[in-house]
Amino acid sequence: FSRTLVDAGVAPHHAGHLTAWKIAVERMLAKGLVKVVFATTTLAAGLDVPARTVVLPTLFVGDREGERPITALEFHQMTGRAGRRGIDRIGFVLVLPYTPRDLRFARELTESEPEELLSAFRVRYYQVLNLLARHGLEESLRVVDRSLALYQLSRRSRKRTRMVRRKLISEFKNRVEILREFGYLTPDMELTDDGRWALIIRHERSLFICEAVRRGMLDALSPELLAGWAAAMVAERAPHRPTTKLNLAPLRNLAFELDALEKRYRIEPSGFGEPFRGGRRSKANLMAAAVYRW
Fold this sequence. Notes:
Blueprint: H1 2-8, E1 10-13, H2 19-30, E2 36-39, E3 53-56, E4 60-63, E5 66-69, H3 72-79, E6 92-95, H4 100-111, H5 125-135, H6 137-145, H7 148-154, H8 158-181, H9 193-198, H10 206-214, H11 223-234, H12 249-265, H13 283-293
Parallel strand pairs: 1-2, 2-3, 3-6
Antiparallel strand pairs: 4-5
Helix pairs in contact: 5-6, 7-8, 11-13
């Protein structure tokens, strides 16, 4: 079934898909091979991946508070992906309303001004790799200097803007040095083979995940233990009671090693070790144990 969709140039894209599938779809989108994409708000999260037609199967999205209607900003970001530059003269958006109320809401969204986009920009390792892969060091620093976060801050306080600019630039350079120290970058700031595959791990804890893989820490694990360790690495919400105790010492030691390195470079901590504090009742062990038993 998936092969039929791919051959036809049709693809779904949302946060629940496996990373490999999302990467494949995004690469096809970037090359203009996808004519229709069934989109959720994941596609609104800054991915530059146009298609001829964007289909919105629903106008509602689930978050930690439950189900809510999409915002005008999310609607415009998703529908703005319709139309491949240089390929399509026009882009199409299909909304699938379940009720007349949904249809009225869709019309309201098309006529609504998008809400102000507030930047939550923080320098992450995968962002550093992404910028260096596209621009090189000097241009990457200029991109950071032109970030939305600094622009919005400049409208409120020029003094604070200068301070934050220095902090962002310094943090970017220091994360570059850490990536170079671990071998993800060459001395000339080119991505190594490890850097190129690390580029696709778009996660706040990407360095932690990549180092666990590179050091072979996952190679000899059973499928059940591998699933538990993976749960500990991503540090999602955990149950309240432990179901069993797993040996997470290698992961914990790696997390504390990375925390110590960031402290040495005086950059904002990524908090790799925080989920491992608390022994058997640590967040990492609670999550790992639940997935392992499952």
